[in-house]
Amino acid sequence: MAQRVYELFEKRVSLLLVLAALTVASVPATVAFGTVYKPWEVVLGLLEGSSDVAQALVLRFRRALVSLLVGAFLGGAGVLTQAAFRNQLASPFTLGISSASALGVAVALVLGVGGRGGSWFVTFSSPAVLALFAFTFSLAQTLLVLLLAWKAGLDPRALILASISLNFLYQAVLYLVQYLVLNEIQLATVVFWTFGDLGRAGWQELSFLLAGSPVITLAYLLLHKDLDLLLLGDDVAETSGINPRRTRLITVIAAALGAALATSFVGILAFLCLLSPHLARLLIGGRHKYLVPASMLIGALILEWADAISRTILSPVVLPVGVTLSMVGAPLLVYLLLRGGPSGGHKG
Hints:
With about 350 residues, the protein is an all-alpha fold. Helix content is about 75%, strand content about 0%.
């Protein structure tokens, strides 16, 4: 028995190391892809010492780092949310984060804070203001959901019902603002923001993501034992010495903060929160000690290559990465669900 446990541990650690190596190796690999310089042109440009190629690679490297951080945040948040809801089809965006953040962008446009909109254009003196409004509204949505769910006992059903109710409310307010207030260009800005695009994150946005990454990563990883107990049910969790309501509250807050930080800078990439945990669970099993870091690495890996595909598949047109992610990931997720049966391929 001890030998079996050790072999399983060794296998999981090896898989995590392979995923980490693939994620790191994918950064320079995906940097070589783009609309202006193809991989062979990048190699030739570097050999010739071209400054234009070097400048393009710097911008692509920034984009790759953004994809790595955002993918890790969303992949880990998906695992936490599924454990809190005890539902493998849940995600942070079940909390209504996407609708709330889109409404925040619309409100920023209406108020003209950090930018101005005319009949034919929208300009921003401080693009980070959009991200700030998106993050603020996402955080407010999360707190409202938790408040309503706390009043109802903070169980998974209360969380889901509160999330759905407020999600519809945010959507209604957003549609009302779009219909009555926004002009065509402002409306297009809100719609395009919801697509999900890594190109809108500059150096300032990357610095915020880097600053938040240690805190969010540590919060994700420290919850692994409590997440295992939550999946066994509240009664088992209580007899094991944890407060399931408090643990569920902390879990949802950690997942929402990670998802809100990622969403506020790049737009909505909701599908990644569903796909990454399922792939990680299939590869490494259901123990959250390994599942959480595996899902974070897989999320980063998927987003890196989805962005590379977005930049090259219809070159010179760059597709929003959210579109590519959903088109490639949806069939894959359906396959995983059908292959895994009702449990979605869960294993311990």
